[in-house]
TrEMBL record, chain A:
This is Sugar ABC transporter permease. GO terms for molecular function: transmembrane transporter activity. The lineage of its organism: Bacteria, Pseudomonadati, Pseudomonadota, Alphaproteobacteria, Acetobacterales. It is found in: Cell membrane. The chain crosses the membrane at residues 12-31, 51-68, 75-92, 98-119, 126-146, 166-184, 215-234, 246-263, 270-292, 298-318. GO terms for cellular component: plasma membrane. It is a multi-pass membrane protein. Keywords: Cell membrane, Membrane, Transmembrane, Transmembrane helix.
TrEMBL record, chain B:
The complex is composed of two ATP-binding proteins (LsrA), two transmembrane proteins (LsrC and LsrD) and a solute-binding protein (LsrB). The keyword Transmembrane applies. This is Autoinducer 2 import system permease protein LsrD. Keywords: Cell inner membrane, Cell membrane, Membrane, Transmembrane, Transmembrane helix, Transport. It comes from Rhodopila globiformis. Part of the ABC transporter complex LsrABCD involved in autoinducer 2 (AI-2) import. Probably responsible for the translocation of the substrate across the membrane. It comes from the Bacteria. It is found in: Cell membrane. Its main location: membrane. It is a multi-pass membrane protein.
From TrEMBL, chain C:
Residues 17-252, 264-507 form the ABC transporter domain. InterPro entries: AAA+_ATPase (IPR003593), ABC_carbohydrate_import_ATPase (IPR050107), ABC_transporter-like_ATP-bd (IPR003439), ABC_transporter-like_CS (IPR017871), P-loop_NTPase (IPR027417). This is ABC transporter domain-containing protein. Gene3D superfamilies: P-loop containing nucleotide triphosphate hydrolases (3.40.50.300). GO terms for molecular function: ATP binding; ATP hydrolysis activity. CDD domains: ABC_Carb_Monos_I, ABC_Carb_Monos_II. Keywords: ATP-binding, Nucleotide-binding, Repeat, Sugar transport, Transport. It comes from the Bacteria.
């Protein structure tokens, strides 16, 4: 009984991911057919650069969602980091390093704050992170009251280009992200994360420190937002204090498309990274097809709902299959 | 409706004072302190005129926050309010095109459309089971796109002059918006704490499990709450268009997060089931006063956001303290 | 406390576990009060009590899940204040929880070692090694049919229970807490062998069970809790079944019931269910006459909860027919059921019974609130007039009406839930364990209300974990076993023994029927 049900589950667990890969391929084909440079190194680098901010941010968000919580502060934290990089990275030869350390510190601190509020004080995560989101938006505005500032060239050059004109830097970073997730998922923390999101009460009775696990998830997510803010700065070369609502929606869309349950405990960061890829290619495809901006907006909202509906449906199917197998 | 509402309210107040009234009064007192502070930092202001100006500027937030309060009463949230406000403003100016006569049909049409967006939110949440913050964020993005497609961002048409007059004229020596705010508050309180639907909304927000077993119309109530939220956002947008004489699609955006702040400051519980409009109203007045103070002190808008965020978190911590969860 | 006879109290010196005057409150509810208890080395001590007597809270306090408000605990003479399960484990205290604390999405192997499964140099879980070790541990405890790599969620309930017990056992704790270890376990001999082995290495066992025969077989001594207090601490052999019974219930059982003549009326049945099938409901048929109180009995988790929920449409039924007064009725949702006069008083009072932020009067008037409104606006005076006669029927004091329902005692909350059912015009009440966690006085009121409702022509389907209630209140009793109706006990033959024999799946004359205590 156990062995076949295990195989079923693995196949079904891969179900949403398989759909995601197919979708990605289809949209990439449309995009490539319309854009000549799409398949060149330049085109691929371009695509990866467009998607990497979302990929890093939604990978971080995935940790929080897996633990059974929400985090709305991500985009605002990214904006703060962007403003910081645009402000300090041009000071001296090591401005880029100072800026990198600064954004990681800011991201980590924001995550720590969220974690303390949610895991330490037991506040509802949605409301608490809306609080930190508004506060962070304020901080971004205090750093830069209007779009502006400059990002050190060294950051933009080294993070957006190719290594020896062959391997895009963004691809290396993505690979590192995937590797980090692969390890993290199999550590004790990873186990605790899934356990806390699946059944917090059982996790606690099993000796898992649920609040600490959630706190760590928020901090790691914050570090990811910091890194995403750094990458965003490298892309744009300037600072913008206004956080974009669309990015927030895209982060949750990536997570949902990637098959992570918003109830926690099911899914993973690979899916979210793939989801980010799908959304990026979708934007590229819509642009290549010459779809007007307002339709793109409509599409973005609809795809979020569709992703969730598919996610719900596949979870229901998986459950039914498992019940039948058991 | 409003005439029968007044005695209702009095009776409710006499019989049993909801525990939320005290924090609401506290927030009102803080608002008073802030107004005193404004007087202190700029002695030139006339107190009465200042209060009147704050009340007028608070109406948009106060109206939109009522809808947010209903969503939060059900343990949800409505992140589409900003976009709906923008759409409402754009629509009323587009439809009336500077003519007062068109107001008669344009007004209901606009409000119906905005309520319709709310209905879509409610249906997605109640029928498909999408988390409210995602459903409303997604519908906001989509409908923003629709609005962008139809109008290209800024209204080319002027707002009906009647609406502008409404927002600037006085009745009995008091600006009309203040009368409107008063009337709205009476209706809102009567609905939320006096009506059958309001009672059922409290019940559903308080114990969704019990509501299911007791056979409350859960889907209908959810759709109604989000529909009303859309309606209120639309109304706020229409008033804002009249106030600023020119509507833009993004003019509602700065109001979205303050609606949440107003509700939370007003003592509503974010997980649902608790909160009164008087508190939300107090929260809206407080935030509007804060805004005025920041303007008077010519401080950065960033500081406003920062303070708002800190206040929300403080309010959450404060209301978390007494209800320590057992087990 | 006058009837508490602590006849045997173990000496504190030399005890492995020593609890002194432990107290714990949740808000207004006292879960534990002044409970002292000792465990001697190698001793198996039974812990008995009705539902809500405080057994679970005591287990949780001992395993570090809740912190007692008052009192002290000592393990091996050292002060013992565990803040979590790991602290408890460090003191050699291990627990197999009743609610099963395994994480369903993790493998059996990882669950056995939580929260610290073995890792490799990269800090990743060493899966192969962990599974090998798990296999060895399971094998050492006589389990060979559960592959360690299986997800716990894919195991049957009985298998999970065994894994749960092994997880508590394999570290060879000094103190072993077993909370209802046979609730889902068919193979009791396996458990008894494990307990014997634990005693063999010197462990002391606190054995919490409903089943008196298990307690008699395993335990030398037993402690009885009632309403959060310890009322007995004596050698099992020195107590008769009746002794134990009345210590747990705190009263002579029979005297609290007032016998009334059956009120069953002729005519078409109020509710007739034919061949109901669905998830957790297997071919259930029964008929309920007006004026009848039909009991439902069953051990924990035999599908009774699902049946009650399915009857009001909370879960879809796949097939079967329901008739009300001879006419087909589609009870597809709680609303539809209410329109037909079928109302459920659910098991989970806190989450499904009461609306915790509303006042008591609002809780009761909710289904009919529109009747107290004009132009959709509620008149509070009309609302009170609507509610007051009903509160009399359930003995609810009028002064509770204005209070938030969360401020009431469990008994009064339950009366309010019943009052709401009556207010909504129910003709057929589905009562799921309505006296759980309710004080004696409120129980009396609830019995009276049930009998009065039936006498007025209402029909009652009544599930209770307290068999004496079923025996004394019901006109007949259905017994559920594994999602089916295993049998029916007619009024003449209603007795606890008879019900229990059916409930444990043994049939009326079967052997080895569990002697289940009330509760």
């Amino acid at each position: 009984m156990a062995a076949p049900s295990g195989r079923w589950r693995r196949a079904l667990g891969g179900g949403p991911t398989a759909v995601a890969v197919l979708l990605f391929a289809a949209m990439y084909a449309v995009y490539a057919a319309r854009t000549e440079t799409a398949t060149t190194v330049f085109g691929i680098t371009n695509l990866l650069n467009d998607g990497i901010v979302l990929a890093i941010a939604s990978a971080g968000l995935t940790l929080v969602v897996l633990a059974g919580e929400f985090d709305l502060s991500g985009v605002a934290v990214i904006a703060v980091c962007n403003c910081v990089v645009a402000t300090i990275s041009t000071f001296g030869d090591f401005g880029w390093l100072v800026a990198l350390l600064a954004v990681l510190a800011i991201g980590g601190a924001a995550g720590l704050l969220n974690g303390l509020l949610v895991a330490g004080l037991g506040l509802q995560s949605l409301a608490a992170t809306i609080g930190t989101m508004i506060a962070a938006e304020g901080v971004a505005l205090l750093i830069l009251s209007a779009p502006g500032g400059t990002v050190a060239d060294v950051i933009a050059d080294s993070l957006t280009g190719d290594i020896r004109s062959v391997v895009p830097v963004a691809a290396v970073i993505l690979a590192g992200l995937c590797l980090a997730w692969m390890v993290l998922k199999r550590t004790r923390f990873g186990i605790a994360l899934y356990a806390a999101g699946t059944d917090a009460a059982a996790a606690r009775l099993s000796g898992i420190d649920v609040p600490r696990t959630k706190l760590k998830a928020f901090v790691l997510a914050g570090l990811c937002y910091g890194a995403a803010g750094y990458m965003l700065s490298a892309q744009t070369g300037t600072g913008d204090p206004r956080a974009s609502d669309a990015l927030l929606l895209f982060m949750y869309a990536s997570v949902a498309i990637g098959g992570t349950s918003l109830m926690g405990g099911r899914g993973g960061a690979f899916g979210s990274i793939a989801g980010a890829g799908i959304l990026t290619v979708m934007q590229k495809m819509l642009f290549a097809l010459g779809v007007a901006e307002f339709y793109t907006n409509v599409f973005n909202g609809v795809i979020m709902i569709v992703a969730l509906v598919i996610g719900n449906a596949s979870a229901a199917v998986a459950q039914r299959m498992r019940r039948r197998a058991a | 409706m409003s005439d029968s509402a007044v005695p209702m309210e009095a009776e409710g107040g006499r019989r049993r004072m909801p525990p939320e009234i005290l924090p609401a009064l506290g927030v009102l007192a803080c608002t008073g302190l802030l107004i005193g502070l404004i007087k202190l930092v700029s002695p030139g202001t006339v107190l009465l005129a200042q209060v009147s100006a704050i009340l007028v500027s608070a109406i948009f937030l106060a109206v939109a926050s009522f809808g947010q309060g209903l969503a939060i009463l059900l343990g949800g949230i409505d992140l589409s309010i900003g976009v709906v406000m923008g759409l409402g403003g754009m629509m009323i100016s587009g439809l009336t095109n500077g003519s007062n006569d068109a107001l008669i049909w344009a007004m209901p049409a606009t409000l119906a459309c905005c309520a319709g967006i709310g209905l879509v939110n409610g249906l997605g949440i109640a029928l498909i089971g999408i988390p409210p913050f995602i459903m409303t964020l997604a519908s906001a993005t989509s409908f923003f796109g629709v609005g962008l497609g139809l109008t290209a961002g800024a209204a080319q048409a002027p707002v009906a002059p009647g609406l502008e007059t409404l927002m600037s004229a006085r009745g009995l020596g008091v600006p009309w918006p203040i009368w409107l705010l008063l009337g709205f508050a009476v209706i809102a309180i009567a609905f939320q704490n006096g009506s059958v639907t309001g009672r059922r909304l409290y019940a559903l927000g308080s114990s969704p499990g019990a509501a299911r077993v007791a056979g409350l119309p859960i889907g209908g109530l959810t759709v109604a709450a989000y529909g009303l939220s859309g309606l209120c956002a639309g109304l706020a947008g229409v008033l804002l268009a009249g106030y600023s004489s020119a509507a833009t699609l993004t003019m509602g955006d700065p109001f979205l997060l303050p609606t949440i702040a107003a509700v939370v400051i007003g003592g509503a519980r974010v997980t649902g089931g608790r909160g009164i409009y008087l508190g939300t109203l107090a929260g809206a007045l407080f935030l509007s006063t804060l805004e005025t103070l920041i303007t008077v002190l010519s401080l950065s808008q960033g500081l406003r956001d920062l303070i708002q965020g800190v206040i929300i978190i403080t309010a959450l911590i404060a209301q978390n303290r007494p209800g320590a969860n057992p087990g | 406390m006058s009837d508490s006879v602590p006849s045997v109290v173990g000496p504190s010196a030399g005890s492995v576990l020593d609890l002194r005057a432990i107290g714990k409150r949740y808000g207004a509810t006292v879960a534990l009060q002044d409970v002292s208890l000792t465990l001697l080395p190698g001793e198996i001590c039974g812990l008995l009590g009705e539902n809500g007597a405080g057994k679970s809270t005591l287990v949780k306090a001992l395993s570090g899940v809740v912190t007692p408000d008052t009192g002290e605990m000592y393990v091996g003479g050292a002060p013992y204040r565990p803040r979590n399960v790991l602290d408890a484990r460090a003191f050699g205290v291990a627990t197999a929880f009743q609610e099963l604390s395994l994480v369903p999405t993790l493998s059996v192997a990882v669950n056995l070692f939580l929260p610290q499964p073995g890792i490799n140099r990269l800090h990743m879980i060493a899966r192969r090694r962990v599974e090998q070790e798990a296999k060895a541990i399971l094998g050492a405890h006589g389990i060979r049919d559960i592959p360690p790599a299986t997800l716990v969620g894919d195991l049957s309930l009985g298998m999970r229970q065994r894994v749960e017990i092994v997880r508590a056992l394999w570290r060879q704790p000094r103190i072993l807490l077993l909370d209802e270890p046979t609730a889902a376990l068919a193979d009791r001999d396996w458990l008894f062998a494990q307990v014997a082995a634990a005693v063999g290495w010197g462990a002391s066992v606190l054995y919490i069970s409903h089943k008196l025969d298990e307690v008699r077989r395993l335990c030398g001594r037993c402690v009885i809790l009632r309403n959060g207090r310890k009322v007995r601490d004596a050698a099992v052999a020195a107590m008769s079944d009746d002794d134990i019974f009345s210590s747990m219930a705190g009263r002579s059982v029979v005297e609290t019931f007032v016998a009334v003549p059956p009120a069953i009326r002729p005519g078409p049945p109020m509710l007739r269910a034919t061949g109901l099938r669905g998830p957790g409901v297997d071919d259930v048929s029964f008929s309920l006459a007006p004026g009848e109180i039909l009991g439902v009995a069953g051990l924990e988790g035999q599908g009774q909860a699902r049946l009650f929920q399915s009857l009001i449409g909370l879960h879809p039924l796949q097939s079967g027919r329901i008739e009300m007064r001879g006419k087909p009725a589609a009870l597809r949702s709680p609303r539809a059921a209410r329109r037909h006069g079928v109302v459920l008083v659910p098991e989970e009072r806190k989450t499904e019974g009461i609306f915790k932020d509303l006042t008591t009067v609002a809780n009761i008037s909710l289904p009919v609130i529109a009747r107290a409104a004009r132009l959709r606006l509620i008149s509070r005076r009309a609302e009170r007039r609507l509610v007051e006669p009903i509160t009399e029927a359930v003995d609810l004091s009028p002064r509770t009406l204005k209070l938030p329902i969360a401020a009431l005692s469990g008994g009064n909350q339950q009366k309010a839930v019943l009052a709401r059912a009556l207010a909504s015009g129910a003709r057929c009440l589905l009562l799921f364990d309505p006296t759980r966690g309710v004080d004696v006085g409120a129980k009396q009121s609830i019995y009276r209300m049930i009998q009065g409702f039936a006498a007025a022509g209402g029909a009652v389907l009544f599930y209770s974990t307290e068999l004496d209630e079923l025996v004394h209140l019901c006109d007949r009793c259905l017994v559920i076993y594994r999602n089916r109706i295993a049998g029916e006990v007619p009024r003449e033959a209603l007795s606890q023994e008879h019900i229990l024999a059916l409930a444990s799946g043994a049939g009326p004359s079967g052997q080895g029927a569990a002697m289940e205590l009330a509760g």
